[in-house]
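2024-03-11 09:14:02 DEBUG pipeline.ingest accepted 1 chain
2024-03-11 09:14:02 DEBUG pipeline.ingest length=74
2024-03-11 09:14:03 DEBUG pipeline.predict start
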Amino acid sequence: MTQEEIKKTWKDLFIHFLIGVLILIVAIFFHRLGSKRSTPQTIWFFVGILGSVLSLYAGNRLLKFYRFLKENNY
């Protein structure tokens, strides 16, 4: 694996992680500060679940890639 491939992979994984965290933060703000009717609250709740799943999945892949690099002395 070349340095360029490692940089590209880190960048891709980190961007996916940040997108998941950003979706989660926006969903929390809209859930807490948005309309108090049940439909918007439900939509933002499920968007929050989506953001948390995305961030956890990307975070897990980041950790696995970090361990892979450490094991193979990159």
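2024-03-11 09:14:41 DEBUG pipeline.report The mean pLDDT is 91.
2024-03-11 09:14:41 DEBUG pipeline.predict end
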